[in-house]
């Protein structure tokens, strides 16, 4: 069973059967009927944490709708925060979002519209405050960052759906290694900055631009693992309620991707 670099998706219930619904996967058309698959494997579903009696399996429509609502909430509140100039809300909102994310990661059974939308709202306000400050310095950077993030998301979805890059165990191990390397470098840069040492990773120079591109690449390819984990949950017959949890997992990657794209654009706009 492949795992995701996104900690949220590691807590999704997994099964060996097929929910029988359309999925992100390009091979989803060969699935057997959802009704018969669900009826024939109800006992196994209960045993493995999949949809049980009185619960319907998750569908691609559930995932798309919940993810859209989450992203839309973040976008609307982020825009309002940036336009209103309430940039001081960024830090408390980020703290709220971080705490909620920890709750959802360690207590996935609590996932649902209230907590997931609270996370999206908090991160929307946080990103809106940060973006507002950047847009004051570099006019137009906010729209560029939003379009860039949306473009990467759609591009990676196409890459996954067409099978241009296949999510294999080998690919997963490579990406996990890259992710660990990026996190180690970020922590190293943070520690060095506390001692007044400039490592060049975040000063806007050529090395910083290259490192930012690397991070964006890792975040973008992490979306492939997120899509694959969501696809496995759908085909494995996870309960429909976990669509909110999948939406949360995708949002965490999108937040990371957006921040790094915004950072890169600021580097490129420096005189």
TrEMBL record:
<keyword id="KW-1133">Transmembrane helix</keyword>
<feature type="transmembrane region" description="Helical">
    <location>
        <begin position="140"/>
        <end position="162"/>
    </location>
</feature>
<dbReference type="InterPro" id="IPR010539">
    <property type="entry name" value="BaxI_1-like"/>
</dbReference>
<feature type="transmembrane region" description="Helical">
    <location>
        <begin position="239"/>
        <end position="259"/>
    </location>
</feature>
<feature type="transmembrane region" description="Helical">
    <location>
        <begin position="174"/>
        <end position="195"/>
    </location>
</feature>
<feature type="transmembrane region" description="Helical">
    <location>
        <begin position="113"/>
        <end position="134"/>
    </location>
</feature>
<keyword id="KW-0472">Membrane</keyword>
<protein>
    <submittedName>
        <fullName>Bax inhibitor-1/YccA family protein</fullName>
    </submittedName>
</protein>
<keyword id="KW-0812">Transmembrane</keyword>
<dbReference type="Pfam" id="PF12811">
    <property type="entry name" value="BaxI_1"/>
</dbReference>
<feature type="region of interest" description="Disordered">
    <location>
        <begin position="1"/>
        <end position="20"/>
    </location>
</feature>
<feature type="transmembrane region" description="Helical">
    <location>
        <begin position="207"/>
        <end position="227"/>
    </location>
</feature>
<feature type="transmembrane region" description="Helical">
    <location>
        <begin position="85"/>
        <end position="106"/>
    </location>
</feature>
């Amino acid at each position: 069973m492949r795992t995701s670099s996104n900690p949220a998706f590691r807590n999704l219930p997994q099964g060996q059967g097929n929910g029988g619904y359309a999925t992100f996967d390009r091979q989803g058309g060969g699935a057997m009927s959802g009704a018969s698959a669900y009826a024939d494997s109800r006992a196994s579903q209960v045993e493995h944490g999949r949809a049980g009696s009185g619960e319907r399996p998750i569908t691609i429509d559930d995932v798309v709708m919940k993810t859209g609502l989450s992203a839309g909430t973040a976008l609307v509140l982020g825009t309002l925060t940036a336009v209103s100039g309430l940039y001081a809300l960024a830090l408390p909102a980020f703290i709220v979002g971080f705490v909620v994310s920890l709750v959802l990661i360690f207590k996935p059974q609590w996932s649902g519209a209230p907590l997931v939308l609270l996370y999206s709202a908090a991160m929307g306000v946080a990103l809106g405050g940060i973006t507002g400050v950047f847009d004051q310095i570099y006019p137009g950077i906010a729209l560029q960052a939003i379009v860039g993030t949306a473009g990467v998301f759609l591009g990676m979805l196409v890459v996954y759906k067409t099978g241009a890059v296949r999510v294999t165990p080998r690919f997963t191990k490579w990406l996990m290694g890259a992710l660990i390397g990026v996190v180690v470098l970020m922590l190293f840069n943070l520690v060095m900055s506390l001692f007044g040492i400039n490592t060049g990773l975040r000063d806007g120079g050529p090395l910083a631009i290259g490192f930012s591109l690397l991070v964006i690449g890792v975040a973008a390819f992490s979306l492939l693992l997120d899509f694959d984990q969501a696809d496995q949950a759908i085909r494995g017959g996870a309960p429909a309620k976990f669509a909110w949890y999948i939406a949360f997992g995708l949002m965490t990657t999108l937040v990371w991707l957006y921040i790094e794209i915004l950072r890169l654009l600021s580097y490129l706009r420096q005189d």
